[in-house]
Specification:
Blueprint (H helix, E strand, L loop, with lengths): L1 H17 L6 E5 L6 E6 L15 E8 L3 E7 L6 E6 L2 E5 L21 H4 L9 E6 L2 E11 L5 E9 L6 H26 L3
Parallel strand pairs: 1-3
Antiparallel strand pairs: 2-9, 3-8, 4-7, 4-9, 5-6, 5-8
Length: 195
Amino acid sequence: MRKIINGLLAAAAVTLLTSAPAMAQVTETLVEGSGWNTFDFGDTVNFPAFQDLFGDTITFDFTVAATTTLRITDGYNDGDQFSVTLNNLTAATTETLDTSTPIFDGNNIFDNWSAVFDEPGLGVEYSHLTLTLDPGVYSLTGDAIQSPFGAGQAAIELGTLPAVPEPSVWALMLVGFGGLGAMLRRRKALAAMPA
């Protein structure tokens, strides 16, 4: 009897140790204008999907009311690239402008995700993607297709297109400049009058 129990315990231990960890599916709702949402990913073979901090696969769901942008960027270690699926259709892959081989130099952008898009010299090392989306309901998933260091972190942001100044703003600005010019001209005229 003791041999049977020991055999069952050994079989149970082997089963528990060799079984793959179960990964849950997590859905996060992106809110337009709420800033950057970070996600993790593992190596491109075993755990390429976008993941949360606990290793659960993430699906980003969001609704767009007016034309807006969706930005995705690498930023933890350079050289990672992603394939993005939007509403079950492969939308695009992130691209990098730097063709050199990534090196682990500890260089990352920490939480300054916008720097990849906005700062000229920095963005070439990190892959990034900007999509313009029409109004609608979207569901986004992604996979790491290249990860030289085996894992990393990236971010996604749902934001609005830059606003175009309205004519009233331009008119008010011109009136302000005109008033400033008139004040400066009057001040010079008063200073030139003899006392």
